[in-house]
UniProtKB/TrEMBL annotation:
Family matches, as InterPro entries: Secre_tail (IPR026444)
Leader peptide range in chain numbering: 1-19
Domain of life: Bacteria
Any Pfam family hit: Por_Secre_tail
Nucleotide-binding found in the keyword field: no
The protein, known as: Putative secreted protein (Por secretion system target)
Entry annotated with the keyword Ribosomal protein: no
Residue ranges of coiled coil: none
Protein source organism: Ulvibacter antarcticus
Keywords recorded for this protein, A-Z: Signal
Secretion system C-terminal sorting domain boundaries: 179-240
Amino acid sequence: MKQKLLLLSVLFASFSMLAQSYTVVDGDGGAILDGHEVTYGVLTYPEASLDFFVTNTTSAEIYMRIELESAVNADGTGFELCFGECLSNLSIGQSVPAAPEFIAIPVGGTTPQGNHFYNSFAGNGSDVLEYNFRFYLSDAAGNDIGEELRLTYYYDPLLSLNDFEALDVNIFNTTITNELTVDVAEDVNLKVYDLQGRIVKNENLNAGRTSINMSDLSAQMYILQFDNNRGLSHTQKVVVK
């Protein structure tokens, strides 16, 4: 059970620089952008696991680590980060893999399944736990060279299943030739992102069934993000042929 809040108020300059090197998506294909937040109300695996994939979008091999920068109401006990290797009971300031090691991602390559963030620590049973991570690049010698993407993982013990509303979106075709057909239960905004994080379409959709022309887009994978005026979001990966 989780709520994904894609925070898109990112400085365009830093986002453009990041998009030149790598993209990150979750296990459902939803874009993970700088400032992404995810909240869980359970401690069980895989329900509380945020799976992710990193893709190298450059013309050269890249080298990456992930660091637990800080935490609130927690110290990393019971938190597992898998990125090439799995480490549990993280310490503040610890990177995975530990420097000077790194994960090498070849040109156009994507990291395999199995990488995830997962918390099993309950805290005091009432306070929200907050874990702040950063993805960052290193050079071939293992030195930190930045190009950061930050993600915050929350565990809220007071959440229940009823606290989460789902944005009711039905997507009829995830492999698209000309038109994308969707059915939404309420008025929403749709943004279409390419894998470099650029918005290539931005449309307001009325409740009901709608067809969106996609024939002007190049053949590749895209991320759809639907948002309503109550702060709910839904993301979906599609492929234009």
